Amino acid sequence: MRLARDRLIFLCLAALDDIMHGCATAPAAPSPQFRAVLATLFALGEHGQREVFDAFWQSSQLAPSHTMTEHQANHRRMSELGRMWPQICRHVGVEPTTDFTLALAAARNRHESDRARLARLLDEVEQRRRVLDRHKRQKQQCTIRD
Q1: Helix-strand-coil percent breakdown of the chain, rounded to 5?
Q2: Which among 87, 41, 81, 32 is positioned nearest to 58, based on CA atoms?
Q3: Sign of torsion, CA 3 8 14 15?
Q4: Of 15, 30, 70, 119, which alpha carbon lies 20 to 30 A from 4's?
Q5: What are the CA-CA distances from residue 72 to residues 64, 76, 86, 104, 119 (Å)?
Q6: What DSSP character marks residue 4?
Q7: Element (H, E) at 88
Q8: Phi and psi (nearest 5°) for 145?
Q9: Which residue would you say has higher pLDDT here, 58 or 113?
Q10: E strands within 17-66?
Q11: Bridge partners (DSSP) listed for residue 68
Q12: What are φ and ψ of residue 144, in 5° steps?
C-alpha cells in the first residue's frame, strides 16, 4: 500500500499535534515514534531548515527544575511549541488554518463512540480545572506581600 504525499504529511502532522497536546501537562516521551514523525516531516519539506525540528524536540522535553515550577515549564513548553507549529506546517506546504485545525481534531477523535467522547470531554474539563486550581495556588504562593 502506497500513501500519497499529502496523506502522509497529514498523518504526521496529526501525530505531532497529538504529541503537542500531551505536552500541555508533561514533557513528551523521547520515543522513536516521535523522532520518526519529526524526521519524516523534515524529509517531506521543501527546504532544509532543520533548526525548527531540533528546537521542537528540545522544547517538548522541557521539564520542571529547581528554577522552574511545573506551571512555568508547562507554559514555556506550550508557548515554544505553539510558536514552532506554524513553521513546521509551512515547511511541508500546509497553511495552519482553522479548517486544518478542525480536521486534525476530527482525525484525533474519529473512532470514538458518543459515550467515549463524553467521558474524554469530562476528563479534559476535570484536568483543566485541576491545572487551573494548581496555577491559582502557585500564584498565591508567589505573590509578594508588602
Answers
A1: 70, 0, 30
A2: 81
A3: positive
A4: 30
A5: 8, 6, 22, 27, 28
A6: -
A7: helix 70-91
A8: -110, 135
A9: 58
A10: none
A11: 65
A12: -90, 125
Return the half-sphere exposure (C-beta side, CA atoms, 13 A cut-off) of residue 10: 15
Give me 115's grid cell: 459515550
Query: Is residue 62 within 8 Å of residue 27, measured between CB atoms?
Result: yes
Q: What angle do CA 64, 17, 23 make, to 5 degrees?
A: 10
Dihedral (CA of 22, 99, 42, 59) sign: negative
Show Cβ contacts of residue 117 under 8 Å, excluding neighbours closer than 6 positions: 109
Distance in angstroms between the alpha carbons of the first and the last residue of the chain: 68
E strand segments, 14-121: none
pLDDT digits (tens, 9 = 90+) for 72-122: 888 999 999 999 999 999 999 999 899 998 888 888 777 777 787 778 778
